[in-house]
Amino acid sequence: MKLRSVLPAIIGLGVVAALAACGSDHTVDKASGTGGGGAAPAPAVATTAPAQPAAAVKTLTVSNVEGLTPIVTNDKGRTIYRFDQDSNNPAKTTCVGQCAVTWEPVLAPNGFDIKGSAIDKNLVGEIVRPDGEKQLTLKGWPLYYFKDDKTLGQLAGQGKGGTWFAIAPDGSKARATARSGGQAGGSTGGMGGYGY
Q: Beta strands 112-114 and 58-63: pairing type?
């Protein structure tokens, strides 16, 4: 009888001692974050920032629109203009401040490309604007978009203020074709020659 009553107590003490011994191998060292008993730390996972897509270069091409000789546009067909109050020798912009809001400079921080063979790549260059941005030039003339033009065929800026004209592939002003029967393009009205 005595043996039967003592045996469960001995077994119970053995189980408790075994559990205590096992538990000591799995304690966490708070300073290093590793388990006790010399367990190796988990390998660090290298993290890198996701790759940023490369910004596209500016593409110039030549388009045909009714009423004008061929004009330079971007690859989406948006008309590109030149401004008579700028200088092409040396290349210099005078369109800053509010003018550059209405007449958006054709910026090319990542360079340019030419689609087709109608534009001589040697005629395309860039200037640094007063704000530090790089603006494309064609035969020295700084290039612009008009804020109201969005797609091929829109020429709302043509002739504005008598100083803004769609630019031809050789850097000259695009000319009216015989079919148009007169000066091509929009209004000649404007403020102070800037054609706002």
A: parallel
Tell me the pLDDT tens digit for each residue of 113-146: 999 999 999 999 999 999 999 999 999 999 999 9
3-state helix, strand, coil in the chain (%, to 5): 20, 25, 55
Count: domains in the chain: 1
Answer whether residue 122 is part of any domain: yes
Could you please report the per-residue DSSP string of 125-170? EEEE-TTS-EEEEETTEE-EEETT--STT--TTTTGGGTEEEBPTT
- List pLDDT tens digits, range 68-100: 999 999 998 999 999 999 999 999 999 999 999
Range of 88's domain? 58-180
